[in-house]
Amino acid sequence: MASAALPHVPEREAKDADALDALLRGAREPFVIRGLAAEWPLVAAGKTSSKAARDYIERHHRDRPFAVSVGDPKAKGRMYYDEAMGMNFRMTNEKLPQVFQQIDRLEGEPNAPSIYFASIDLHDFFDGLHEANHVDLGTRDPLASIWIGTATRIAAHNDFPDNLAVCAVGKRRFTVFPPEQFRNLYLGPVDNTPAGRAISMVDFHNPDFDAHPRFRDALQHAQVAELEPGDAVFVPSMWWHHVEGLAGFNVLVNYWWRDTPKYLGQPQNALNHAMLAIRDLPKEDREIWRDLFDYYVFEAGDEVTAHIPDHARSVLSRLDKEQAGRIRAFLLRALSQ
């Protein structure tokens, strides 16, 4: 796939936290901000050398095992399935200095394995790294994670939260697709996945249009973002994104947050349960349940509750923390039977 032929994600400017907040508030389209993190010490270290970046990160790490993925050199950085639909990489827990020493030894080797730390919590695994290198997101309470590794290719997937991703070291390429393009991306299993989300089965570097003809349609809606150190891309909730670490050593810091209250459930859990409880019913029964879902969930009009006294509407009212907890407890009891 020739990413150079794809349109670029639009660029925006944010000179301060208020300007960034205004850009992010209600945003439903991706955008790039050049130099958002240009003043980070981590960015400065990476511009000196990849070794300097690793030394800087190591000075802040906590002495605990880190989950690390090690890929087969033959996969050329593609973290994906093997022929048996297992993973083509192995997971292990190692201390950060030992893994960095391995990267030091292998740097520049053409047949080195891929080494990848995925979504490491900045607060749990480091002291002071977040404080010295972070984006001010105002009143948002994001999950801040760091992604560290050699050159890698991460299959297209989506996430429920909004995502601001900052290229701190190396280079990153994001290829993004609107949410409705999922049918054209040929998604794999929802339960057997490399990282918890269903991924596109298309090899973006060598797409098989005979096996995946609708991927041509997806490419008509794709955009690409090429990030240098200090640049950031905003990936809205549910947008599909294929992510490549293009340099020999790459570091990404990202922030996930939801505008909805944390006490609300995860939509993916509802989808999984619907597959368990509804998908394999007879067609006539599925149509009845589709109508009920529209009535209670997707339309949720006044007619649902207009005939019920206000004090008796319970979970049919707009959910608060207490009512959400009541539904969660009810579901736990039902699922345990």
Which secondary structure elements does this structure contain, and how are they paired or packed?
Blueprint: E1 11-12, H1 17-24, E2 31-33, H2 41-48, H3 50-60, E3 65-71, E4 78-79, E5 89-95, H4 96-106, E6 114-121, H5 122-125, H6 129-132, E7 143-149, E8 152-157, E9 162-169, E10 172-177, H7 215-219, E11 223-227, E12 232-235, E13 240-245, E14 250-257, H8 267-277, H9 283-299, H10 321-335
Parallel strand pairs: 1-2, 4-8
Antiparallel strand pairs: 2-12, 3-5, 3-6, 6-7, 7-14, 8-13, 9-12, 9-14, 10-11, 10-13
Helix pairs in contact: 2-3
> In CATH's first tier, which class of the largest domain applies?
Mainly Beta
Helical coverage, percent range: 25-40%
Radius of gyration: 22 Å
H and E string: EHEHHEEEHEHHEEEEHEEEEHHH
Q: Main sheet? A: 9 strands, mixed
CATH superfamily of the largest domain: Jelly Rolls
Mean pLDDT, to the nearest integer, reads 96
Count of structural domains: 2
CATH topology of the largest domain: Jelly Rolls
User: Which strand-content bin applies to the residues?
Assistant: 15-25%
Helix tally? 10
The overall strand count is 14
> Order of strands in the sheet with the most strands?
1-2-12-9-14-7-6-3-5
Structural class: alpha+beta
How does CATH name the architecture of the largest domain? Sandwich
